[in-house]
Design brief:
Length: 419
Amino acid sequence: MKATKATDTDIPLAHDIEVEDVAPGVYTIGGAGRSLVVETPGGLLLVDAGATRPMVQEMQRTLRARTGAPVRWIVYSHGHLGYNYGVGLWLKEAKQLGHPRPMIVAHENLVRRYRRYEETTGLQNHINALQFRGAVPMLERLPLTYPDLTYTGSYTVHAGPDRTVQLLWAPSETDDATAVWLPEERVLYGGAAVIDAIPNVGTPLRTLRDPVRWADTLDRLAALGAQVLVPEFGPIARGREAVDAWLREPAAVLRWLRREVVARMNRGMTVGAILHDVDYPDGMFDKPWLKETYGHRDYLVRDIYRSENGWWEERNPTALHPAHPDASATAIADAITDKQAVLDHAARLHDEGRTQEALHVVDLLALAPGDDPHHTAARTLKRQLCAALAEQTTSYISQSIYANAARRSGPAETGEPAL
């Protein structure tokens, strides 16, 4: 895929709220998620600088319509790509306005994450294209600005008679996540730890995220006794009861699911069996902070499973030392004497509403390389099945993976199997 500059396109995580007041001198100004602004006598604290030039310019116009105070600190809520690509534009603005250069602050683990991303830039491009349906720039070099100051457990950015601003390590979606706590106002900015959906654990394209660690973070944040909770995504929660529910209920679900999966692992069950054996209570995912609009319960199960198991997840000896994917797919396809029967059976399963089963059947032919007419027909049918599943699932990530498979015509770009 052609590499572009980070400013050439927007990202799908942009927050469409321009300004929302949280407390006197505390407000959000959009950004990639919610970018928080906190006013102090020493200047402004800005959480997350934005992703692209148009986004940052709009953030700056919004901020400057409200205050001319200098941005004194830029805090990274976490180290995922895109949230702070726009730091350089804020540094440029400070210079143009004659303000001191903002200090960039992040948790110490962010440095290691940035170095890993630089080492795996091509992989990050590929993963993001899959997860966000190609709506992100493909970069030859990541526009990363490393922090000037890092902290470990907590760091007090400002302490004054009327306002204290504390940064708290909040490991959750990442191990470098930061929450912001204003104790006088009882305002908590949850950052990546708090979203309006099921905790984003076990994403198919990402590394382990540890649901128990995330639950511990939510419980620790709940213990602060905040009256106002600002999530990275979703509406602001006000009132102790609402804040407590948003933090403690997802933590309880994460712990419950850990117990359920571990109990089944202890009985020797594989991940595929566990996925279909867990009995979820009715209404568990009906709450706004547990909706499966981005993540999914199956992702959580898989993350718990792989935290205690190796890569040989289904315990099938065939997969222990596999043949090359093309070789195995060809051998399977060659063993089938009536290939049209396979296609017809897959189509019938789909017509009966058993689309996932149809995918398993069609793969008997779809994964084989070459231009055999039956194999080509299988790939076409698989694209249709994936398009149907993209319409059925609620998870944005699952939708993206299915939609990308539905569009793919062959392995020319990635070297992957045709579907």
